[in-house]
Amino acid sequence: MKNALIFVIAIALATAAGYLARQYLAPPQDRPNAASKQIGAVIGKQRPEFAMQDIDGKIRNIKDWDGKVILLNFWATWCPPCRKEMPGFIELQKEYGDQGLQIVGVAMDDEQSVRIFAEEIQVNYPLMAGDAETIELAKRYGNTIGALPFTAIINRKGVISSTFAGELSKSRALESLKKAGL
Asked: Which residue of 9, 50, 123, 156 has the fewest CB atoms within a 10 Å radius of its CB?
């Protein structure tokens, strides 16, 4: 009887350990969690409206790009993954801009730093900079965890089709843009 009880306890512990190991070892994108569910909560919803001044002093409204597929990227000059993904976005804008793509960058940074960095890497799409307002805007687009970079893909009808917390490769961005109607 004692051996049977030990066997049952061992099986239960092994099952629990296997489950926990699977949860721990699963790739992050395969792990369901509250944050990923919150980030995905905006998918399928109309994009929030906003207007901000770009680094050239022009007021830009998200409605300016109605009818285009928009890659809205929240980033900062001090964020290494943000800096790493931007050359791919520059290439995408150059390659697909005439097909209806509009990339828009919203930096959680000061305008001077953004302007210097934009000139350095020759950004070819509109950039805006802000602090508290940018954080709130990112939350409205689904960035409830405050991740940087954070990207929202918006289809031609103004509906958010996907969001990404963290660095977004050019190939993955293009795949999502095509699903959004590019």
From this structure: 9
Range of the domain at 162: 34-179
pTM of the model: 0.79
Give bridge partners of residue 59 from the DSSP assignment. 53
DSSP state of 48: P
Percent of the chain with pLDDT over 90: 76
Mean pLDDT of the chain: 85
Q: Phi and psi (nearest 5°) for 141?
A: -90, 10
**105 and 77 Cβ atoms separated by less than 8 Å:** no
Q: 91 and 169 in contact (C-beta within 8 Å)?
A: no
- Check whether residue 56 and residue 10 sit in a common domain: no
Same domain, 109 and 139: yes
Please say whether the beta carbons of 108 and 130 come within 8 A. Answer: yes
Same domain, 22 and 57: no
Q: Which of 20-34, 37-51, 91-105 has the lowest mean pLDDT?
A: 20-34
